[in-house]
Amino acid sequence: MPFTRKRxxxxxxxxxxADKVVAAIAPSPExxxxxxxxxxxxxxxxxxxxxxxxxAIEIDxxxxxxxxxxxxxxxxxINANFLQQSxxxxxxxxxxxxxxxxxxxxxPILFKLLELQTEHPITDATLMLQKEVAxxxxxxxxxxxxxxxxxLVQWKAAVTHLLTLPPGAFRPPPKVRSALVRLAFxxxxxxxxxxxxFQQLVRSVFTQRRKTLSNALGPFAExxxxxxxxxxxQAGIDPTRRPQTLQLVEIARLADVFHTAKK
Length: 263
Hints:
This protein is of the alpha/beta class. It folds into 2 domains: 6-185, Vaccinia Virus protein VP39 (Rossmann fold); 195-262, Orthogonal Bundle (Helicase, Ruva Protein, domain 3). The protein has helices at residues 15-25, 44-47, 61-67, 106-117, 131-138, 148-156, 195-205, 213-216, 218-221, 228-235, 248-262; strands spanning 12-13, 32-36, 53-58, 75-79, 95-100, 122-130, 157-165, 170-171, 178-185.
């Protein structure tokens, strides 16, 4: 087993589980893949023979030195931090994404993918995550797990839970269960006049998730010239509801109320 670096959150897939993950990804010969964090190559070496091209981005130089000699010609291995570079701009399209994500930076990587998806034709992303994070991504309105991650991911992608993996599927075993999810990107679920304002609204109200909307909306509404009660009334939303009960389309209506007020 390769030496693991705690700061990178490395947990390597056992071969039998790597086979199951690749089967769930379902690669095809014409696919162009981007792999985030190939590590020791458990997925890389299984995907490469089944796809047209694979670009793998790895932050750990020691792992790159071990993996590079084992790679076939259709794999490009890049030493970089996925969050800080733009190698994706050189890839052919459409792109499919795969990755066993470091759990300590999985949310930032997810948000980075959402950002990249607005600029590049990413078809889907099949990602290994801590199960707690996966549960938040697939959560429905009204559930305890529904929040910022749920709304912003489901705004741009249809999410499917594919597999749940025990700690023993990895070496070293993590202290948590893991899950494999697929994000199938599509046109945004709602049309927004101000996407940036929508995201700011989501992040703001869900930090006040235990409050009623009339109170949770206060910090975001401050300085906009629109009182929370008036905004909720215009959006047709009951002010006594809680943020986690809001459907995506309702949040969009509320965001548009504030955007219109800026004009």
